[in-house]
Design goal:
Length: 354
Amino acid sequence: MAKKVTMQKIADHLGVSKFVVSKSLSGKSGVNEMTRERVIQAASQLGYFTQKNAFVQGVKRTPPVGGSDRNKQSVLVLMPNIRSQTQDSLYWGKIVDGIALALDQEGLGMVIISENRADNFVNILNPSGILGLVGVGEISTSLLLEVHRIGLPMVLIDHEDPLIPSDTVFANNVDSMARLTNHLMGTGHTQMHFIGNIGFSRSFRDRWIGFRSALEESGIRLPLEDDANLFLEGVEEEVFQEDFKNWVMKRKKAKTLPTALVCANDKTALSASDILKAEGLNIPGDISVTGFDNIEDASRGVPPLTTVHVPKEAMGRAAVEKLLSRIGHPSAPLEKILIAADIVHRDSVDIPRD
């Protein structure tokens, strides 16, 4: 039987005091951020967080109940206001709509918090009456650590943390992007580039993996992996235009433009399309462009954007269903739920130019 991972064991592993480990894991002040991150990482590697009841404070929460009293319970929706993660977003807002509808059908309330600092989050959070948490989008490790510390069941949507174990819900990004890439190859495209920062999110990276695997399976040479378009900064804030414009001009002058651009999401694709058109290129006559997510603006593009429809409301509903299941079965294995996503064919793709 494996020995229990204690705070003292973590302290010995790092060569620090148990006092430092305790403060780091409890979220208290008095420890610098670098030391705190080292402690959290070591705790994760040693298996501290995966131990049953190993990291739960003595917080008394109202247990889930059935019948008419259940409408007194609420679920916390944590959506830090970063990277356009707001209810007004054409992507994130739809996910929250799905969460709200699923909770309403269960007679449960919803409390939305957009805080992104762990110390403020602790002051806001009152675990009494909170059944659990659904995290939407990117959430810092320190915030998730606070949730884990107090023992709130949680499910994350479109995000996972390598240090904090939890159930997660994603679109099936790898398979969906592979199908989209195969569609492009089926129309004759062999010169394609992926556009988007693959370090931006797990979803972007998985979409790149799907693109790459489809090309490899067809024996098509991959674009260079150090291509600047794989690490475009400011994609979500749409401030990558200058770098992308310079790339287009350089490729255009050298007559090495690809015949298709496979973009990490619709916002990137729409912004890239504007730049291509400003440089005198016709879409799809000169170059095809695809997106991912199927936000409402995708159908309004000129031309309308071929993309992948991510069932955003379904992701929200799936997260609620998983959270309620987790509450009822706290010891069940953690799950990563993948929601199927389908290609939406529009006018931004055509056969490649001669």
